[in-house]
Sequence to fold (320 residues):
Amino acid sequence: MMPPALPTFDDLLDAAARIAPHARVTPVLRSHALDELSGAQLHFKAEPLQRSGAFKFRGACNAVWSLDETAARRGVVTHSSGNHGAALALASATRGIACHVVVPEGAVEAKLASIRRYGAILHRCAAGIAAREAMCAQVQADTGAELVHPYTDARVIAGQGTAAMELINHTGPLDALVIPVGGGGLASGTAIAAAALAPQCKVFAAEPEGAADTARSLALGRHDVDFVPDTICDGLRGSLGEPNFAILRDHGVQAIVVDDAATTAAMRLLWQVLKLIVEPSSAIALAAVLQQPERFAGQRVGLILSGGNVDLDALPWSAP
Fold:
């Protein structure tokens, strides 16, 4: 039996307690140079310093440690092109259970290496969500493993929301929170956390121009994810989940669409100024703020830098 589709703030509190022995409380970084450049006071939640190199460990850890003993013995399965797969593999290792990860063709090799490093069993499939889900179903049938969906699972959403909880508890009330959005696990968890801890805070979801299904869905008022992704933000190519859309819509989250050139420039800035390795899917949060300075001028803005799992042999500013 899957948990309820839409988590509550109480679920986030439970997740925070559950993952506390395993997850890191990541630092909040500041930069006078980036404050001046943006015209705002920026507070960066440094999730590249989280275990497995991304916020994804929070949700994966909460899901793994939510399992009863009988389910845990059968292991877990997911589909992932990178960060969630690595996070679930590491979370499973903390409990000593099996982890199966379905990976599509074309996934970033550096991220696949991380999944292997944490001990997961990899299952290859064709690109596309239908192929991923079919392979997951086959692994479930063969092993009895519990499906931990990368972003629609309520346990995952609740775990991801703990990053925003930590950020707000560290900084005090914020005027705005900016997070990347792909499938919507982090964005929806953040929306729930902000509504409870800083109800005056506006939440903005930054997404790539080549995968702007969240902006389109929110504008239409209905879930519309019929698109083919085309972006360097490999972690944001997945389509927005249906429960995630419902949470974002109900909490009044606004989308900001960013082109890849602006994301690359922001990524380079973060490497140079914060001295923090971030991936494009993470840098898009700063790119969104810099793209619309009038929206954030003079405000206290929290940004969740979601991860730093970069293919160092294929940096976006390197010559081909």
Remarks:
- The chain has two domains: 9-52+153-305, 57-147.
- The first strand starts at residue 28 and ends at 29.
- Residues 24 and 50 are 6 Å apart (CA to CA).
